Amino acid sequence: MPEFRQNPATRQWVILSPERTSRPNCFITPSKSADAKQGELNCPFCPGNEHMTPPETLRVSNACVVLGNDKWSVRSVPNKYPALAYARENGETHENFFVKVQGNGCHEVMVDTPLHFQAMHEMSDSQIRDIIFAYLNRYREFITIPHIRSIVLFKNAGAMAGCSIEHPHTQILASALVPRDIQERLDIAIQHYEKHDSCLYCRMLDMELREKKRIVLETEHFVVFHPFASKSPYETWILPRRHTSCFGEVTELEALELGFLLREILRCFGEELGAFDYNYLVQSVPLNGNGRVSTGRYHWHAQVIPKLTMPAGFEVATGMYINPVMPEASAKTLRSVVIW
Ligand SMILES: [Zn+2]
Ligand SMILES: [Zn+2]
To answer: Is there a contact between 215 and 224 (Cβ–Cβ < 8 Å)?
Structure first.
């Protein structure tokens, strides 16, 4: 059973999950991280190998005709090597110097496509629709699970981004604890609301639209920009125009537009950067453990982060990142290749 442990010096929680060492390519080594490819042979996410994963929680088949596959276009399964495991009761906290809590949570993998080598920017509208509605389906389901307090939806693409299986997939990891960074962001948003009687992220959106320098793309429902204090080159934010705290509260139109935006941003990165590894993630409000959001003062958003630099000794020591690319310059570059 995994467990959460808190570092007494930093108050940062860590998930200790020894089961995960059994998964393929668990540790990054220079030979793996360069360009090692696994291929379709024995891939647990390829059609025909469905028996290699735990039983499905969701199967979508709308776009399967487009893909020449009569079975499925997206499927979601529990992670075979979960970072957290679900328990009906929350485990006891041991309140001595070393604090640990039972690693209560849920971890699923969504297989984005039956095609082993299909990148997201090559996908059709109907495939994007299937993927994004699968995200929403699983996210909304996870919200209802008792004790769950934070949910992170993320994609690791490429070894540099922490990916252990190259077949395109997305993960959703829900936890009975609120990780420190998420709690900190929430506290800052609440403090801003109390001081200014307005949402910090709505204000950021206004400021970015006024300055224009870091905007990549404006659409009906979202603004895409490179943040003022970007931590790494080409860090891209997708902020919804409508103030909503929780990703689960998006409309179908917003969700669909988000999918098309992710596809377009990845296409632009490819055009500008060539081959690249990346993460994307959805930052959403923590929950109160009973299927309700903890506050309406947060503003959900998505981030796309190409892995162009590695955190080095200074970043590890300080938590302060050194970014060699000005966000004004990277936003201008991406603006010039956007097709919308
Ligand atoms: Zn595969
Ligand atoms: Zn807002």
So the answer is: yes
